[in-house]
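Figure 3 (text version): structure tokens given as input.
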């Protein structure tokens, strides 16, 4: 798979290194000469160019890319790169970094973004995930279909604890994708029994999140 990464800073280089280890073809693009550090990611292609310019993206042959990652530290740049990648070059999948959570609402399909990754939001979500049991935590937002990757650690008092996955009536537009139990990652087959302490990962429509949390968590009786 060919992947172009706009932004060759620490984030872009780190992503490039991981993808190269997985056998992908990587192109790093940055307009700052000081960011071009070929020796740090020697197996990647490098391009000194402005990723917001059509001529630069033509030179990068963006139409050949399966994925474009807009990973700069500037949200405006990431939005422009995403829009150009999707509308001008028809890149199938565009992933964009959100630096300021206040701008997260802009990172949607209108700007060509398939997946928006907000580092501050993700870090806070992981903190919440580590200390919360029975509360739904949003980890990642997908632009298409207004869906999110959400997590909930199943409390012992949940009505579905001890129930088989196939016997649970899940909300519409909700899919249980993974169960993390201790060090094991389980595929949630219909006969898998849900246990207290399971970390359940769902892809769910935002409108269904409250319904999903009510189903799984301990209901709080009103005073």
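Below: residues designed for each position.
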């Amino acid at each position: 798979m060919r992947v172009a990464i706009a932004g060759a800073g620490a984030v872009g280089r780190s992503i490039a290194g991981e993808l190269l280890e997985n056998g992908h073809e990587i192109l790093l693009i940055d307009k700052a000469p000081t960011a071009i550090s070929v020796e740090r990611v020697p197996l990647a292609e490098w391009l000194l160019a402005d990723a917001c310019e059509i001529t630069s993206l033509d030179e990068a042959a963006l139409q050949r890319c399966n994925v474009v990652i807009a990973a700069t530290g500037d949200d405006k740049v990431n939005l422009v790169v995403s829009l150009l990648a999707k509308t001008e070059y028809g890149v199938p999948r565009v992933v964009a970094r959100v630096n300021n959570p206040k701008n997260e609402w802009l990172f949607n399909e209108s700007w060509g973004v398939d997946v928006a990754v907000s580092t501050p939001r993700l870090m806070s979500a992981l903190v919440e995930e580590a200390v919360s049991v029975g509360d739904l935590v949003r980890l990642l937002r997908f632009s298409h279909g207004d869906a999110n990757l959400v997590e909930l650690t199943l409390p012992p008092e949940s009505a579905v604890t001890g129930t088989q996955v196939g016997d649970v009536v899940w909300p519409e537009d909700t899919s249980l994708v993974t169960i993390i139990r201790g060090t094991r990652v389980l595929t949630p087959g219909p006969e898998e029994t849900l246990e207290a302490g399971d970390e359940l990962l769902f892809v769910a429509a935002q409108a269904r999140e409250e319904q999903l949390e009510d189903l799984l968590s301990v209901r709080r009786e009103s005073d």
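The chain has a mean pLDDT of 88.
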